[in-house]
Amino acid sequence: MTYVVTDNCIRCKYTDCVEVCPVDCFHEGPNCLVIDPDECIDCTLCEPECPAEAIFAEDDVPAGMENFIELNAELSREWPIITDMKPAPEDAEEWDGVKDKLQYLER
Asked: Would you say residue 25 lies in a domain?
């Protein structure tokens, strides 16, 4: 099983999760992070670190967000690995909790 970054990371892109990942499975896009399912070791460390509560175990992805499982796999092949924590976007708090943010995902 792997962990999956979902909708609420979009335009929040907090990187607290990156700091605790022992295998560097996070990849960074312009306004979101994703997890490489082939690298994730299911260590559970990232989930509680996410201020936006956007990370879920694959089996616990909320209903309606199942498409993020494949999206994480796809984008992790395209985006570079991120290994260091960075400041969140200035407007991250404003975007935290906004519903249906997939339309704002920048590839």
From this structure: yes
Q: How many domains does the chain have?
A: 1
The CATH number of the domain holding residue 61 is: 3.30.70.20
Q: Is residue 64 part of a domain?
A: yes
pLDDT at residue 1 in the model: 84
Nearest to 91, CA basis, from 34, 54, 52:
52
| Beta-carbon-side half-sphere exposure of residue 96 (alpha carbons within 13 Å) | 13
pTM exceeding 0.85:
yes
Domain that holds residue 30: 3-84
User: Once rounded to an integer, what is the mean pLDDT over residues 62-84?
Assistant: 98
**In this model, does residue 69 exceed pLDDT 90?**
yes
